[in-house]
Amino acid sequence: MNGCAFVDGVFVPPEDAKISIFDWGFLHSDATYDVAHVWQGRFFRLEDHLDRFEASCRALRLDPGLSRERMREVMHECVRRAGLRDAYVELLCTRGRPAPGSRDPRTCTNRFMAFAIPFVWIADPEKQRRGVDLVVGTPARIPASSVDPRVKNYHWLDFVMGLFEAYERGGETVVLTDGAGHVTEGPGFNVFAVFGRQVVTPSAGVLEGITRRTLIELAQREGLEVQLRELGVDELRRADEVFLSSTGGGAIAVHALDGVAIQGRRAGDIGPVTARLQAAYWSLHQDERYSAAVQYGR
Ligand SMILES: Cc1ncc(COP(=O)(O)O)c(C=O)c1O
Fold first, then answer.
1. Which of 25, 161, 248, 268 has the fewest CB atoms below 10 angstroms from its CB?
2. β-pairing, 132-140 with 173-177?
3. Where are the domains of the chain?
4. Which of 230, 100, 243, 123 lies closest to 177, judged by CA?
5. If DSSP states are collapsed to H, E and C, what string results for 207-248?
């Protein structure tokens, strides 16, 4: 695979980026991560991703052992070495291994890793053109009182089982509820519903996505009313438009929910609010207030 990774303080090709099977990141999903992206040679909202990564590490009592400046440098360097213009750039911190014979997390040496690979879409451009078919999965999202979804984490068995269910039911991806009929999020994305000039996204039980924040700001700039509140699945079915938000593609239109087209629209007929936000999102990528050029030259 084209790309570059940073493991144990060394830049290596992706195929050499390995961790011990005894690392609790692997054994217990005891890790956090963040994903930023580079588009046309520029990092998008990199400082916001670093803020969220540092906050996640603090919340999980993980110490990546690198300054913010060094982490930023490593991200630039991974992209530079890989020579990528459009990239998916991940930072990770795992708990590491405990002292021999110990099960005490305080004895673990935490590990920091990073990598840059070619940009990964949550739905490929063709699916985005049509709009994705979303399924409301049976598993409830792991409760926020157990694992704080605002801390980016790998507790994904609910999502993965939901994805299998979605594929079996003819869908392309899944959204999970909180078990009480409210929308949470899906594997790699937040969810928005549009009702006239109102744009609604769940206020709780979700990762506070950087794309979600961007689209909220853009919607407000467009004069739309943004509501962060509980969003019922029944409401979602009645929405004028539904879209997903993710670093892996921005605002991604949903065509159907559980096999029923949103407002009876044909595939490819993207709702006007979604279309406007998509265009506004991509145009921000050249704006210096939101993006920073990758340091390629060295
Ligand atoms: C569970 C979950 N929710 C939401 C998101 C969207 O977050 P962002 O917009 O920062 O990519 C992600 C991204 O990977 C995610 O994993």
1. 268
2. parallel
3. 4-118, 125-285
4. 230
5. CCCHHHHHHHHHHHHCCCEEEEECCEHHHHHHCCEEEEEECC
What's the CA gap between 167 and 116, in Å, rounded? Answer: 29
Q: Which of 174, 246, 284 to mutate to test the pocket of ligand 1 (most atoms within 8 A of CB)?
A: 246
Pocket test for ligand 1, best of 190, 214, 284 (most atoms within 8 A of CB): 190
Express each pLDDT in 151-171 by its tens digit: 999 999 999 999 999 999 999
Residues 109-113: what's their mean pLDDT? 98
Q: CATH class for domain 125-285? A: alpha beta
Counting from 1 in the atom list of ligand 1, the atom nearest the Cα of 211 is: 9
Identity of the amino acid at 114: A
Which protein residues touch ligand 1 with a CB less than 6 Å away? 35, 185, 188-190, 207, 209-212, 245-247
Q: In ligand 1, which atom is closest to the CA atom of 159?
A: 1
pLDDT (tens digit per residue) in 222-234: 999 999 999 999 9
Spell out a b/e string for 217-229, using b for 16 or more CB atoms within 10 Å of the CB, else e.
ebbeeeebebeee
The Cβ-side half-sphere exposure at 165, using a 13 Å CA radius, reads 18
Of the pLDDT bands very low, low, confident and very high (cuts 50, 70, 90), residue 297 is confident
Residue 298: predicted pLDDT: 62
**Helical (H) or strand (E) element with 73:** helix 68-82
Residue with tokens 């065509």: 255
Place of tokens 């937040």: 190
What phi and psi, each to the nearest 5 degrees, are found at residue 277? -70, -35
Q: What is the DSSP string of 11-56?
A: EE-GGG----TTSHHHHS--EEEEEEEEETTEEESHHHHHHHHHHH
Class of domain 4-118: alpha beta
Stated as kind and residue range, the H or E segment containing 80 is: helix 68-82
**Distance of CA 102 from the midpoint of ligand 1 (Å):** 34
